[in-house]
Amino acid sequence: MPVWLLYGVFSVIFILASTALFFFTLTRGALLVRGAMGSLGNDTAHVYPIYSNMRLIKLIDFQPIIAAILLFQYDRLVSAITSGLRHTDLAGQRVLITSCAFGNVIPRVVTAAIESGAHRVLIADIIKNELTHAQSKLASLPGKLELLEENATAMKQADGSVAANVIFFLLHELPHHLKGEALREAGRVLAPGGKLYLAEFHRPDVWVLRTLSWTYFKVFEPLGLALWDTHDPLMQLETMGGFTCERRTVFFGNFQIIVATKNLAD
Ligand SMILES: C[S@@+](CC[C@H](N)C(=O)[O-])C[C@H]1O[C@@H](n2cnc3c(N)ncnc32)[C@H](O)[C@@H]1O
């Protein structure tokens, strides 16, 4: 093998290994350290440093990186949500985004909600830096926004106070006992007839992807694997009752979008 090719191969391996180590250190590694130090007691203990440290937030939040993390399905997943919002009459209503996320999901959801007539869009996150960062992406949008430092598992919003609620890849990062709490709160604040849009990981249909995905979750995000079975969000919503749910999976079943409509009788 020519020397230049050898250098090339080693360089690629080095870059991939360094990237994996970087993300491991700032996600699961940080939680392991917190656990070892006995500091997992507060409400934000499960939040990775990449979501709380402003320098890290700014370093990582680049659309191509975020799209790659979601296997280039990001745009498709966001479009499924914005299309749902655009086909709903939200005139005079409030729309909630429960937890911030990297990329352009927030501006796109806010724009779709406002264009459908929403009178106010609330963005709730447990980390203030995430809200500040989200606001910087919304500078061009009019003053219909409200940024709320709130916990998705114990929202301060009144029952039935929003017409739509968007949760984008939050559940897989929550400790298991909080996954159901977040869904319960999402349902509680939704008005009868209102819709919860939930984008998340799902158990892939094909074994190659399933194996790769399983390995990813085991190494980086072990709290996410339960979405495949014991904490399947569709199953949890149906067990809670009061919703009519539709689930669509994309990219060989690797991702899911659930639209849960709150029944009028509840
Ligand atoms: C939605 S998740 C991850 C999204 C996805 N990995 C991405 O960015 O593409 C990350 C966000 O959830 C927020 N978060 C975590 N736990 C929360 C909670 N209990 N309540 C509200 N926000 C929470 C974090 O602060 C962070 O802004």
Structural summary, described in words:
This protein is α/β, with parallel strands linked by helices and 266 residues long. It has a single domain, classed as Rossmann fold. It is built from eleven helices and seven strands. It has a seven-stranded mixed β-sheet, sandwiched between helices. Strand 4, helix 9 and strand 5 form a beta-alpha-beta unit. Helix 9 packs across helix 11. The chain is globular, with a radius of gyration of 19 Å. The protein starts with a helix and ends with a strand.
Q: Ligands bound here?
A: S-adenosylmethionine
Query: Can you tell me the CATH topology?
Result: Rossmann fold
Secondary-structure element order, N to C: HHHHHHEHEHEEHEHHEE
Radius of gyration: 19 Å
Oligomer: single chain
Mean pLDDT: 95
Shape: globular
Structural class: alpha/beta
Number of domains in the coordinates?
A: 1
CATH architecture group name: 3-Layer(aba) Sandwich
CATH homology-level superfamily: Vaccinia Virus protein VP39
Rounded to the nearest angstrom, the distance between the terminal CA atoms is 69 Å
Largest sheet: 7 strands, mixed
Please report which band the strand proportion falls in: under 5%, 5-15%, 15-25%, 25-35%, 35-45% or over 45%. Answer: 15-25%
Q: Class, according to the CATH hierarchy?
A: Alpha Beta
Q: What is the helix fraction of residues, given as a range?
A: 40-55%
Count every helix, treating DSSP H or I runs of 4 or more residues as helices: 11
- Tell me the strand order in the biggest sheet: 3-2-1-4-5-7-6
The number of E-state strands comes to 7
